[in-house]
Amino acid sequence: MHQLTNKQIILGITGGIAAYKSAELSRLLIDAGANVRVVMTQAAQEFITPLTMQALTGNPVHTKLLDPAAEAGMGHIELARWADIVLIAPASANFMARLAQGRGDDLLTTLCLATHAPIALAPAMNQVMWQDVNTQRNLKSLLEDGKIIMGPAHGAQACGDIGPGRMLEPAELLVLTAKQFELTVLSGKHIVITAGPTREAIDPVRYITNHSSGKMGYALAEAAVEAGAKVTLISGPVSLSAPPRVTLEPVVSAQQMYEAAMRLAPTCDIFIAPAAVADYSPANVAQQKIKSTPKTMMIELKQTTDIVASVAALPDKPYTVGFAAETQDLLGYAQNKLKNKKLDMIVANDVAAEGIGFDSDDNAVTLIWPDRNLTLEQSSKRQIARQIIQTISQHYDPKIHYGKITG
Ligand code: C5P
Fold it and tell me: Is any atom of ligand 1 closer than 6 Å to the C-beta of 200?
């Protein structure tokens, strides 16, 4: 379990019968090489004594926020900065509610507010409490905030019930905690992704747009974060919310998307462009609403700037991946785009096929490089996104550029 060597872990214990298992957990973490400091809530001390945890970890146990003596030793801000991870096991329903609300009414909640470290919770409670609508709502918001939830398990409970809510066993929590320190394939890389449609104004109330839902771009952003990358998502107007830990750059028009991309592309390692950018926009935007009196009317359109091609033309360009949504001769058109736009890779997508493409949840794509293709069978957009990110991470190398991909 080398991932835990020298890692600084705050083990938060809250009030629940599973608190007795935290004693074993602390020993397992220490045996795996971690440095453990224990923070206990008031309720936790009803189940297990600070003295036990102090003896097991060899460090003083922290229990109070407003204790001048404790603050003079290692205060809550120092503790928050010290942690590589905050692991709260067991996490009671009450603690989850307080954390979801962003409270800072005791040492453990304040520390969670003050830390940049990842926060993992191992919930433990009666199965009815776990399934209660309030707990489930808190769970959802904790997940949206980027907290890591470990478990709970399903099985026999201390109260005699059988159901979901048992804390995971200490050995399982040890493995899951170690996993948080595994270096992921894209850690340290910055990925910029464009997503969604753009809107091109005709007059103050009308615009030209397309059917793009943004689902593919948002799924790619989520998969890239999972792979350890720092992700910026330049998104046209969609009804999705940004995945946790993704920096959102909202834009409306193709011109705005171009400006955001040119500002961010020089800072990134990989640029992925699934956005359905308008190829044309009205040459002149009417200042006032156009009247509906003429029988026919003409709107003159001018070509927009090609964003992905502009990024690929940068002197120190990132690894640049385009998308080709086509309704006919998919591979032929996609190969031409790969060449003309000087991309490193293109994802070809048949938007005329049943059940895949624009607004659907599924997709099936062919990845194309100058020298070979790889087809990904139909699957959910999230699954396809993971496969695309994994493939990019295998091919990505700042020293290899267009036309020289091997392997
Ligand atoms: O030429 P076409 O629009 O089909 O090319 C699709 C690819 O080019 C996509 O990756 C899309 O995001 C990108 N594109 C762009 N800027 C434009 C038009 C398309 O980045 N103005």
Answer: no
Measure 325 CA to ligand 1 centroid, in angstroms: 9
Query: What is the mean pLDDT of the segment spanning 214-236?
Result: 93
- CB distance 2 to 31 below 8 Å: no
* Ligand 1 atom having least distance to the Cα of 341: 8
* pLDDT-derived band at 55, boundaries 50, 70, 90: very high
The yes-or-no verdict on residue 292 having pLDDT over 70 is yes
Flag whether pLDDT at 365 surpasses 50.
Answer: yes
For the Cβ of 304 lying below 6 angstroms from any atom of ligand 1, the answer is: yes
> What is the C-alpha separation between 154 and 173, in angstroms, rounded?
15
How confident is the model over 333-345, as a mean pLDDT? 97
Rounded to whole angstroms, what are the CA distances from 142 to 49, 139, 177, 294, 382?
Answer: 28, 5, 18, 55, 21
pLDDT band at 67 (very low <50, low <70, confident <90, very high): confident
| Per-residue pLDDT band at 397 (split at 50, 70, 90) | low
CB neighbour burial string for 58-90, b if at least 16 within 10 angstroms, e if fewer:
eeebbbebeeeebbeeebbeebbebbbbbbbbb
> Is the Cβ atom of 207 under 6 angstroms away from ligand 1?
no
| Substitution site in 258, 259, 277 for ligand 1 pocket (most atoms within 8 Å of beta carbon) | 277
Q: Would you say the CB of residue 396 lies under 6 angstroms from ligand 1?
A: no
Q: Is 159 a catalytic residue?
A: yes
Within 13 A of 219's CA, how many CA atoms are on the CB side? 19
120: nearest Cα among 156, 153, 97, 96: 96
Complete domains list, the chain, with CATH? 2-179 (3.40.50.1950), 190-395 (3.40.50.10300)
3-state SS assignment for residue 45: helix
Q: Choose which residue among 200, 259, 308 to substitute to test ligand 1 binding: the one with the highest number of ligand atoms within 8 A of its C-beta.
A: 308
- Of the residues 159, 205, 313, 314, only one is catalytic, namely 159
Residue 357 confidence (pLDDT) above 70: no
In SS3 terms, 303-340 reads as ECCCHHHHHHCCCCCCEEEEEEEECCCHHHHHHHHHHH
